[in-house]
Amino acid sequence: MVQKAKILLVDDRPENLLALEAILSALDQTLVRASSGEEALKALLTDDFAVILLDVQMPGMDGFETAAHIKRRERTRDIPIIFLTAINHGPHHTFRGYAAGAVDYISKPFDPWVLRAKVSVFVELYMKNCQLREQAALLRLQLESGGRSALGEGREPVGLLAELSARLAAVEEQAEALSKQLDDDAAGAAAVATAAHLERKLTGLRRALDALEPGTGSGTPQVPSQN
Length: 227
Fold this sequence. Notes:
By secondary structure, the protein is of the alpha/beta class. It contains 7 helices and 5 strands; from the N terminus they run E-H-E-H-E-H-E-H-E-H-H-H. The protein has a 5-stranded parallel β-sheet with strand order 2-1-3-4-5, with helices on both faces.
């Protein structure tokens, strides 16, 4: 089973963190607090996050500097960042947020429903990627063990392939529905690009599975990278 996604909330004001928790609690995910950029970077050393909500105006290391550190780390550079700011200095200020690697830039006060909807998109994408990695791990195990299944000793390779194919079909169906939802909701370009990347990974995994079917060839297919 896929565990709950973790969402990192970064703000130096406790009342703002409390408000964000109230807004996002309906998503039923794990909300992690950080009261500074330094604290956020420490949390990112050990945990994986679906999305980061990052306040721009913080004492010491501000949001822009924090985002720059996040994007420089290979482990964290692909985590979506949504900037939150109480001030708006016009297009130049907004551009600086996107240049720092943010997928969105929201001015306070913001619509709670809109923020929750935006975060939910990235949580869904994260969950789909987790499912894809699980399917890829099962496929690699099948390739490396010559047909011995991690789901139970003694299962025939054909039976394992059928189960893997069924699981992958479920993920493919969910990914397709998510892509249609993104189109309908006019989501940001970053979310659409992430969904397209997920679909390409699913296509590669489907080809690898098809190549294992009896009569399709004796070579060992390459399992697509999940990075």
